[in-house]
Amino acid sequence: MHSFVWHPYTQMNDWKKFDVITKGKGMWLYDSNGNALMDGVASMWCNVWGHSKKELTETITKQAKTLQHSSLFNLTNDKAESLAEKLVKLAPEMYRVFYSDDGSTAMEISAKMALQYWSNIGEKKTKFVSLENGYHGDTIGAMSLGYVPLFFSKFKSSLFPVLRTPSPNRYRTPKGYSFEDYQEFCLERIEQIFSKNNNIAAFVMESGAQIAGGVVIYPKGFQKKISKLCKKYNILLILDEIATGFGRLGSMIEYKNQESIPDIVSFGKMLSGGYLPLAATLANKKVYDSFLGEYKDMKHFFHGHTFTGNPLACALALRNISLYKKYNLISKIKKREAQIKSRIKEITDLDLVGDVRHKGMMMGIELVSDKKTKTTISPQKRLPQKIFNEAKKHGIYQRTLGPIVMVIPPLAISESELDFLLDGTIKTIRNVSSQI
Ligand SMILES: Cc1ncc(COP(=O)(O)O)c(C=O)c1O
User: How far apart are alpha carbons 63 and 368 in whole angstroms?
Assistant: First the structure.
């Protein structure tokens, strides 16, 4: 089959053809030849219940027959309204919801909201501070906020300047520091920047963990201390829960777990169960109120998209959220998390494995060419492609991020399915070791 599709983050010369997925059922994807692959990355970290979940597909069909799309420009729709109410109830101290279609856009909105907030109240605060190796999406603004050198160096000259501070990674703590000392150092750096610059609009970070930056899970209290610094210096805190909210780390709202209340927070991916594109940016009352005034004041938010508040996606998200309670998903995730934990040693003992980091339903396995020196595997070794091909032999769809094997299954994976995934991951790493 000749293909006209250009694939993301893919050297198209390397791929003569792609497996064509024609069906999804539960944790499994089926290709056009009938082969089954377990969805080991939850279709880019967004799938909650597995594929073709009846309650969700029924909701889509029913809503499509009633109202498939209507705009939020001058109008509203019942599903966008109900979902916003639900989200505001779930997310402590959030007050209003601004809808968009994907995580990157939600982060653009977060940044614009923060900038316009300061403009609305007549203060000149225009700079952002964020954590090194944070990731907030692939659009120009989101790339500026979350600069991952490997991904974004080609675009650097067009990105807006953002002050960056280091984030603590236990495995890669710089020489001369204990992990605890290094955390303190990271916090001191943030405070130094906050105290020396009176033009900072917001601090931006992923909530709970940095995912694309290498599955780096924050130590307890780190995020909370940052939120306190933001309060102390009157700087907005923007949290990105696109990959970490709605159960991925074992909590519905991760910032609640981290005891760090943001001013602005974005959700995406799992919000709609991973079935339709939907994201939401929530703001607290302080931020929202600054946008109110006379029309001539021009304080209203200058942002909007064609599909903002799409009723199909909102109906789906409402149903998805209702299922968390019905199926007791968060407590199931805790059980699966314990299951992952019980197998960590097996994984750590493998030849190439330098470090294993996990929380909730997310695990990153960092592969190195030398365990002692923690030397990174050279990109020349084509590790991601080798892992992908080997994992397929064990019935798994796996996608690595550079040298990190990501195990990020749909949240509702069963005990036996998770064992299948972990067994296959172990076999994959073992077999790839001999090719590195
Ligand atoms: C933390 C975080 N923020 C934002 C995004 C961007 O989301 P999207 O790919 O839907 O644009 C991602 C995507 O992986 C993410 O992990």
Answer: 49
